[in-house]
C-alpha cells in the first residue's frame, strides 16, 4: 500500500472506541452476526439462514411502520400514515428482492440440508402472522403453531383484540362524511374482514370524485400499492418454492406449493380492488 493511504484521523474522525460507542456497538453486530448457526456442512445453508433472518428483520420494521400508520389514521393524521405506508411498500420490495437471491440455490443444493430442518417452516413465523392479523386477515386457526409460546400468543391475541389497519381506514372514511355500513363498523374486530357491497359503494364515491375526496383517494391508493407488493411477495414465494422443491410437502407439513397457492387468493382490501370494475 502507498504511504499516501488516506487516514480518516487526519480529518478529525474518531478512531479510539475503547470508551465510546462504535458502529458495531450501536447495531449490536456481535449479536446479529453471531446468530447464524448452520446445522449441516452444506455451503448453501448459510444463504438459507441469512435470507430468512434478514426477511424477519424487514418484517419487524414493517410491523413498526404499519402499527404507527394505524395509530396515525385513528388520530386523523393521514399525511403521516401515507408516508409510513409508502415506506412499507418499499420494505416489501426489499423482501421481494430477497427471493431472487434465494433462487440462486438449486434443488440439489437444498437437498443437502433440507432434512436437517426438522418441522421448522416459514408459515410458523409469528411476525408474518402478526402482519396478516394487523392487515385484517384474522385466521384464528393460525394461532395453533404458536400455542407453545406464551409471550407470542399474548402478542397475537392482543393484535386480534385491536381493530385492523383496514378497519381503522373504514372508520376514518365514515368520520369524513362518507358513511360506511353500520354492520361493518360495529363488527367483532377479532374476525377477518369480508367483502361488503356497502363498503364497495362508499369507495366508489371516493373514486368517482377523487378531487373532492383527495386524502381518502390517496390513502386508498397507498393501500392498493402496498397490497400489490404484498401479493408479489406471496407469488415470488410460490415460484421460489416450486423452483427448488417442486411439489414436495413443506417441512412444516403443509402441502408446500399447493398451500402457498391458496394464500394467493386472500384479498386484504377487497373493495379497493373491485371498485375499479364498477367505475
Tell me what the structure shows.
There is one protein chain. By secondary structure, this protein is an all-alpha fold. The chain has a single domain, classed as Methane Monooxygenase Hydroxylase, Chain G, domain 1 (Up-down Bundle), CATH 1.20.58. It has 13 helices and no strands.
Features:
single chain, 279 residues, mainly alpha, Methane Monooxygenase Hydroxylase, Chain G, domain 1, 59% helix, 0% strand
Give the topology.
Blueprint: H1 23-27, H2 29-32, H3 45-74, H4 78-102, H5 107-111, H6 126-135, H7 150-160, H8 165-175, H9 182-185, H10 197-208, H11 214-245, H12 257-263, H13 270-278
Distance between the termini: 67 Å
Number of helices: 13
Shape-level CATH architecture: Up-down Bundle
User: What is the approximate shape?
Assistant: globular
Residue share in β-strands: under 5%
Number of strands: 0
Please trace the helix and strand order, writing H or E for each element: HHHHHHHHHHHHH
Short synopsis of the structure:
With 279 residues, the protein is mostly helical.
